[in-house]
Amino acid sequence: MIRPVSALFSLLLLLSSSAHADAFGAPGIPHRWASALKQAVGTAYEPTTANSPVWFTVADGVLTEVFYPNIDQAQVGDLQFLVTDGQNFFSEQKRDTISSVSFVNEGMTVRISGQERSGRYAFEQEIVTDTAAPVVRIHTTLRRLQPGLRLFVLFKPAINNTGSQNLGFASHDGLFATKLTPNSRKVPHEFKPVHAALLSSNPWVATSVGYVGFSDGWQDISKHFSLTNIFYEAGPGNIALTGEVRMSQASDFSFDLALGFGGTRSEAQTYAQTSLLIPFDQVRSQYENSWKGYLQELQDSVLTRGTRFITESVFARRSAEIIKMHEDKYEKGAIAASFSKPAPLDNDHAMDGTGGYHVVWPRDLYHAAMGLLAAGDVRTPVNVLRYFLKTQRADGSWPQNFWVDGTPYWRGLQMDQVAFPILLAAQLQKRKVYALTQDDLEMIRKAAAFIIANGPSTQQDRWEELGGYSPSTIAAEIAALKEASLLTNDPTASSVADRWQTFIETWTLVQKGPLGQNYYLRISPAGSPDEPEPIDLANGAGKAFAAEIIDGGFLELIRMRLRSPSDPRILNTMSIYESPQLGVSTKDPTSPGSMVYRRYNRDVYGADREGGFWPLLAGERGHFAVAAGNLDRARAQLFTLERSAIESDLIPEQTITPPLPNIAGAMVGRGVACPLVWAHAEDILLHRSIEEGKVFDAPVIDPLKPLPAPSEIPNGS
Q1: Do 411 and 502 sit in the same domain of this protein?
Q2: What is the three-class DSSP state of 386?
């Protein structure tokens, strides 16, 4: 039960400040999300339960989006502290401190360590989730290097994926937030009311809530170095809640925060109160033990028996933990692409809106499942397959991306994403991880029928920008049809796949073009690569002819075992792909013989309107090296992939530079998504492929039918 503000507390507020029932400045300035470049993510590992369906992120050295009760539902914008001397000094954690973020150990406790820029204080925070409840616990130690400092907590809610329409309530009990009305049009989960409660282990000296940019605590404290205006309620609008924490006289001061969530205010507060009764060290120990247990499962798995990498590589184990952290706890098998909201080009922060990368892409989900399978996780890939079954549409396809409950978010159609569930099913059957049910086989039949009826052309390629005949998409489609034929005894699927395989070059090989001769292009709108096919490059990059643009999609022809790595056309395309004149690739100065890659030449999706280098593509090139038997090159590419990670070993979507010798890794631009689950999956897969000397996720294409020699494959002429 929430107690009313006590008479004594009210009297103290009235004596020391101006107390008002309602804040001014509604609805506040427009909400903006925190940086997509996350330095850490966290949640407890729960193999069978969902006691703690809450996930947190860290960016710019502060707690940012917190998700509850599903991976696609952000409830927090950010939470940080403010420090003043009460007279003329003001400091904000995000802007006025120099900090580092790391995982303490493989238990995945997040630690933020830093100091104020002028040296007035230092701090350390540790963040975990309570394994028994939907509560984020934050333990903060402030070392005052100047006497008289005061500490305030600034809490910015963003209930149900939006910073608008929030309601806030401040009292001596804590800081509370909810949303005025759910928006059922976008996400059905929003039918469920969500309340947040922020409580402190130390008493609040004063609390207030206001509209961001007008009456919030940041505005008040930055001007007056104290809370001089007290507001008990604010909303609906973009609000922020503030509380001053009572501090001891010791130079080193520690306190705990508990951020709880529930369907009612009372429930959220009870969760937070109950959690605060447990010492932080105990909560942290339970959290760390959950992840240590997961790693032990991987090392004991029948799938990793006889392998070394999962035991020897800390990075590979970290990748497995990061992928697993992105899985929903109610919809097992639903894995978000990233806990990020990437910003528009030339903009550090995404504007208010429900979407982002915290939804499900079938492509990313397939790679996540295969990465975890390679790491020894038996349970999650099976749950992914069941989730694919649950979210398949009546026509046999899957949306471009979708919310956890299967509701489409973007409306594009990408044919490789219809193929990947079939490929996953085949992998699970082949490795005797799971026996396919009749429902699974029906899912495969429907997906294969959709591919036959609508392929091989795709509305969008794997970069979600152009339609037509894409080598990477066609490779996935053909491999999936071959697998579907084996799994369902359907000769039609195999016949179509064989026919399409003979036409790959007809649709995608430029015999003579602006980049040379006999090379695979990125995509041909009409399947006529030698014709002058105009295309509009995305993100305002201008117009081009299809034959002028190349990407690494042709490498999927090898990964899917449709072409030999020694095929002259593959090798010729590789020489163009890696030529310095084209601008797609650049040498990695930290790894001799290795390279980094952009998505395609003339790509502008990235910081400063220049396409960045995608670490996952370094891994893709490494898999080609494995297929070609060049394990030294594969190891060099793996080194590049992992060196592209940020300080906390999270791999971003893209980087501005290749890994640099004089810094911890590569330079990463603002607004870039991090971590990217697909990249972490590629890391694990390349580890496993190198150890086995063969591509781990290569499909099971008829083992009795050898790969055709290059001379036996029609070239479209």
Answers
A1: yes
A2: helix
